[in-house]
Design brief:
about 270 residues, Fumarate Reductase Cytochrome B subunit
């Protein structure tokens, strides 16, 4: 009964909470107008320039690099390795580690390269998490600014990384075709029994619990970061906004309150 709930019910609960929670929170942010000039100098004026400014921060963490290069290194390694692990899970499971046959490698060579890259990025993720967690414990300034949620976030991902790397240890066998078939059955809304592997079940359940926790945690900072950067490169809104004026973005939609028509004439004058 427990395995049925874990393997065939919990994934849908976690997926629904994750999607609805993220959409709800981001939609709430987008509805809040920007009442003041937030744009930082020098700010790009073109759409391409704004995309480039946000993209630079997303990919390179430019602001963090300028302020704290040591923190930048480990934070950048964490996010890059996490992104590659997620991508590797999607591609590697779908192709059963034979994805590199698409560029001419043999099946055995593809599986070797896939396993090697998975191990490298998995260990990089684990090491960067340990370093950042240790930094919160020993750095007085960071420790003072940290709250329990910061430690919970790191511990959650740390457990996921540990159980994931555990599956790569010699002697640990995980039936990858069975995992692919199981995940495919979930996506097809015809859930099959979860594969009978203790380490896979532990890893999978931790991921599901993290998905439930994610929308209510600080881990949603990635979406918040995009909204924040969009605000910083948005042109300042004009108050009061004339009726019928097309909005440049969702951040320029507020209108200054006007007490009466006489006051409105005075403002416009």
């Amino acid at each position: 009964m427990l395995l049925y709930f874990v393997g065939q019910v919990l994934p849908y609960i976690a997926g629904a909470i994750f999607l609805i929670g993220v959409i709800y929170r981001v939609a709430g942010w987008l509805k809040v107008p920007v009442p003041f000039q937030l744009t930082l100098f020098p700010a790009p004026t073109s759409g391409a320039g704004r995309i480039a400014a946000v993209g630079t921060e997303v990919l390179l963490f430019k602001s963090l690099y300028n302020n704290d290069k040591n923190l930048w290194l480990w934070a950048w390694l964490l996010h890059v390795s996490l992104a590659m692990v997620i991508l590797g899970h999607i591609v590697g499971i779908y192709f059963l580690m034979n994805q590199f046959t698409l560029i001419g490698l043999s099946a055995s060579a593809s599986q070797t390269v896939s396993a090697f890259l998975g191990t490298v990025f998995g260990l990089t993720l684990l090491i960067s998490l340990i370093v950042l967690f240790y930094r919160r414990l020993v750095n007085p300034e960071v420790k003072q600014l940290s709250d329990p949620a910061d430690y919970i976030d790191l511990l959650f991902i740390l457990v996921i990384a540990i159980t994931g790397n555990h599956m790569r240890l010699p002697g640990v066998e995980v039936d990858l075709p069975a995992v692919k078939a199981y995940l495919g059955s979930l996506l097809a809304f015809g859930p099959a029994p979860i594969p009978d592997s203790g380490v896979f079940i532990a890893h999978f359940v931790t991921v599901m619990l993290f998905m439930i926790y994610f929308p209510f945690s600080k881990m949603l900072h990635f979406a918040g970061f995009l909204v924040n950067r969009a605000m910083l490169v948005e042109a300042a809104p004009v108050y009061p906004t004339p009726a019928g004026t097309p909005l440049r973005s969702s951040f320029a939609g507020a209108r200054a309150p006007v007490a009466d028509s006489g006051q409105a004439k005075g403002v416009q004058a």
